[in-house]
Structure to design on (215 residues):
C-alpha cells in the first residue's frame, strides 16, 4: 500500500462510485455506450449523436460525473507527487471534486455564451459536443489508471508526465478530428475561432498553472 488505510478506503469508495456510474450509463443507453467505447478509432459516434444534442443529456451527464471523480482522484495524486504529502480527507476531496466540476461547467456555459456573441453557435455546439465526448472518454481511461496508481504502483513525477502526455494525445485526436471535419467552417470564421480558443482553451489553464506555481 502506498497510502494510509483511511486514504485508500476513500479512494476505493470513489473508484467504486465511478464504476457504478459507468454501469448506469451503459444501462441507460447500451448501444450508444458501445459506440462511445470506440470513439478513438471511429467517427461513427460523433457523426450519429451530434445530431441529437440536448442542453442536458443524461448519457453525457453520467459520464461527466465519472470524469469529475476520476480527475479529482488523479489531481490529488499529482498534488502529492509535487511535494505535498497531505493526508486525504473527505472534506479536502469534496472541495476538490466540487471545484473541478464547477470549473468545467462554468467554462462550458461561457463557451456557449461566447459562441452566441461571435455568431458561431453551430460550430461551437459541434465543437463542445466533440470536446465533451473526448473528455468523458478520458474519464473512462483514468478509472483503471487511478486504480493501478493507488493500489499497485507508487506514482513518480516521470510517470505522471507520461500519463498526462498520453491523455493530451487522446484529447488532441479529438481536436484534430474536429478541425479536419469542419475545416471550411473554421476558415470562414478563423479570427473568431482563434479568439475563442485563446480565451477559453488557453487562458483558463494558464491562470490555473500560475495559481498552482504561486502556491
Amino acid at each position: 500500500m502506498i497510502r494510509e488505510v483511511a486514504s485508500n478506503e476513500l479512494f476505493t469508495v470513489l473508484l467504486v462510485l465511478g464504476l457504478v456510474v459507468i454501469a448506469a450509463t451503459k444501462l441507460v443507453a447500451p448501444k450508444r455506450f458501445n459506440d462511445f467505447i470506440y470513439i478513438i478509432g471511429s467517427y461513427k459516434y460523433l457523426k450519429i449523436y451530434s445530431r441529437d444534442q440536448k442542453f442536458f443529456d443524461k448519457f453525457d451527464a453520467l459520464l461527466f460525473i465519472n470524469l469529475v471523480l476520476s480527475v479529482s482522484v488523479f489531481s490529488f495524486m499529482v498534488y502529492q507527487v509535487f511535494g505535498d504529502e497531505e493526508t486525504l480527507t473527505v472534506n479536502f476531496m469534496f472541495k476538490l471534486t466540487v471545484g473541478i466540476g464547477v470549473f468545467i461547467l462554468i467554462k462550458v456555459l461561457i463557451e456557449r455564451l461566447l459562441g452566441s456573441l461571435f455568431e458561431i453557435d453551430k460550430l461551437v455546439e459541434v465543437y463542445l459536443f466533440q470536446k465533451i465526448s473526448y473528455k468523458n472518454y478520458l474519464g473512462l481511461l483514468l478509472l483503471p489508471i487511478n486504480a493501478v496508481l493507488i493500489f499497485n504502483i507508487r506514482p513518480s513525477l516521470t510517470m505522471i508526465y507520461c500519463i498526462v502526455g498520453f491523455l493530451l494525445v487522446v484529447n488532441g485526436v479529438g481536436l484534430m478530428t474536429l478541425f479536419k471535419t469542419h475545416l471550411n467552417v473554421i476558415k470562414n470564421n478563423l479570427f473568431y475561432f482563434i479568439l475563442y480558443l485563446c480565451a477559453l482553451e488557453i487562458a483558463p489553464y494558464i491562470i490555473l498553472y500560475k495559481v498552482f506555481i504561486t502556491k
About this structure: The radius of gyration is 18 Å. The chain is about 80% helix and 0% strand. The mean pLDDT is 80. Residues 46 and 190 are 23 Å apart (CA to CA).
